[in-house]
Structures are given as C-alpha cells and as structure tokens.
Amino acid sequence: MGIAMLNHEMALVVKELLKRRNVDLSGCCHDFLQRQINGRLKQIRTDYKIGTEHQIYTEHQIHTEHQIDSGQKNNPKHPIQTVTEYYEYLQSHPEELEHLIDSLIIQVSSFFRDPLVFNYLFCKVLPEIIASKSASGEPSIRIWSAGCATGEEAYSIAMQMGELLEKSRTGSGIGIETSLTGSGTAIEKSLKGSGTAIEKRLAGNGSSMGFTVFATDINEKTLDNARKAVYAPEHLENMPFKYIRHFNRIGNGYSPKNYIKQPVTFSRYDLLDKKSYCPPESVFGGFDLVLCRNLLIYYNTRYQNIIFTKLHRSLNDNGYLVLGETEMPTGQFQDSFTRISDCCQIFKKINI
Ligand SMILES: C[S@@+](CC[C@H](N)C(=O)[O-])C[C@H]1O[C@@H](n2cnc3c(N)ncnc32)[C@H](O)[C@@H]1O
Fold first, then answer.
1. CA end-to-end span of the chain, whole Å?
2. Is the pTM of this model over 0.90?
3. Is 292 in the pocket of ligand 1 (CB under 6 A)?
4. What is the atom index within ligand 1 of the atom nearest the CA of 113?
5. What are the residue boundaries of the CheR-type methyltransferase domain, all occurrences included (predicted)?
6. What is the distance in A from the centroid of ligand 1 to the CA of 34?
7. Is the distance from the beta carbon of residue 271 to the nearest atom of ligand 1 less than 6 Å?
8. Which domains does the chain possess?
9. Helix, strand or coil, per DSSP, at residue 351
10. 324 near 295, Cβ under 8 Å?
C-alpha cells in the first residue's frame, strides 16, 4: 500500500511529514492513519475547549465571543473538524507535527516482545557470540538496540547476556535451569532439549567477558522513560518468569535491578542522520549484534536502504541483525545478509 491508496487530504498530511520531518508514512495503512488523525482532531478540540474556558475564566469581564476568540493566540478560531482543516492547522502549528509523529510512530514495546525471537537469541545466537569472542580472546561483546523506544528490548537482552555469562562463569546455570525445570509448556520442553547444548558451548567460555548494550532512539521522551525504567506489569507479560528475579518492585511497577541497568547506555540517535553511521556514544560501531525491530515499517525503501547501510556498516564481520516480524533486508542488502532461522527475522552479516 502506497500513497496512491490514501485519499487526497490524507496524502497531503503524509507529504507534509515527509517534507518537514523526513518521516515517510506513505506505506501506512489508510485506516490506521485515519484513526490516529481523528485522535489528534479530538485532542485539539479538547485543548481548544479548555483554552476557551480558561480564557472565559481569566477574562470573565470580556463577554463577547469575538473578544474571546481574538485572545486565543495558540488555538484556532473555531475547533477544527476535518482532515483538510487539520492539514491547514499543521502549516501554522509546527509543534503539532511532533504530536502527530508521536501518535503515528508508536513507541510501544515490552519485555521479550516476540518470545520466539528471544528464545532463539538465548539458545543459539548469544552463545555463539560468547563462544567466538572467547575463542578470539576479545573481552567484550557489543550490542546495539536501534529504535529502543522505552528500553524493554535493551534490558531484555541485558538480562539474557547476564544469565548466559553467569552460567559460563559459575557453571551453576541458575537462570537457565529454573526455566528448564518448569512444568513443561511446549517452549520449555524444546528449550530442555537444547539446554545441554547451550551449557556445553558455554562451559569455560566468557569467564572474564563483559558486554555493553547501546540503546538509541530518535525520541527524547521515550529515552527519558527508558532511563527511569519503571514499567507497568503489562510490559512484563511476555517475560519468562525466571527473569523476575532481576527486577525490583516499585509501587505498582517493576524496575530492572542496577546490575541489569548498568551495562545499558541510552542516547538519542536518528537512524536517518547523515553525519554518522553509528551512535556517537559507541564511537566506532563494531557491534556483534544489532536489534532494529518494528521501526523499518515506517519508512519507504529509499529510507530503509539508508538505515540498512548503517546497520551493515556498524556490524562486525559475521555479526547478527534482528528485525521485526514483518521486516526484511531491502534491495542490495538482500545479498548482504543471510537469514539464519526459518521462524525468526534473524540474519548474519555476509563478509564482503
Ligand atoms: C514500535 S517502536 C519499537 C521498539 C522496539 N524496537 C520493539 O520492537 O519493541 C519504534 C521506535 O523506533 C523509533 N524510531 C522511529 N524512527 C526512528 C529513527 N529515524 N531513528 C531512530 N529511532 C526511530 C521510534 O521513536 C520508536 O520508539
């Protein structure tokens, strides 16, 4: 679905986002766009009403509607109703573009979002990385969560790394074994089979290994929440129970313990930024694993190619890339990555 599938008014709004913020939502489905714009219209009408009442309250001596209207610097003269009026409103209210982007580029995330992917990472990808780093005598593993939203993905991978390194150091496998001795769901059973393989691969590896997770997003507000790191219980719904030991209870929420937060660094980074190919905080990229999930869907192929160039360059040889469920390498990048799993969007960089 492209911009041709949107009606004229909606296409104008989408072009405005592209022109002024380089955000291309022409691939968004029509109903989703309509719903989100309706939400903004409703919000603007509410703000207008509050603004009007505030005006009436503070200027109660002034009675005529004209006088009230002329005192409204930031609100439209009458509440806007249609997408055409909304498009005009966007021209005169640049801040509204940010609100629209916030409502369209959804910052939703959760711990262990897509459990199959995280199982695959835990059983195959992370042990491979630990083993190969250990064999080459490198002391640290570098991971990038690109488009991290409120941080759940970055903390999830930090918990997995923590458990695997703990296992390789102590041989006790507290984390792994807790999940393996559970009452036996399908996933637990399938992990049970591979548990010994993980343990063998990890034995003696990583005894002094460390790791860093660089977590970046374009949106400062979500990064603030990621740093605060207090999550409502529903954000933990996909999480295997064994990981609960890595959280503190804070009021009605949960917060990862300090040793989980400590290896994770958050910073603002726009994946379309032309000046650098990786987050400046990471200095040189050199990542063993990059997660860039549920972000590419917002951009057309041209922008996706810009992003893939960065992801590819920032990965070490044989590094791994994880995409969202419906995302695939585009164009030339189809030959730059090999998909390593039938069930998940996990790829290995092809060395050129
Ligand atoms: C739906 S969230 C995905 C969060 C997480 N990766 C996951 O799958 O649970 C998409 C995130 O991508 C971020 N994003 C969108 N465009 C971006 C860009 N150009 N550069 C960096 N982050 C971007 C958004 O701010 C949002 O937080």
1. 34
2. no
3. no
4. 9
5. 80-352
6. 21
7. yes
8. 3-104 (no CATH), 115-349 (3.40.50.150)
9. coil
10. yes
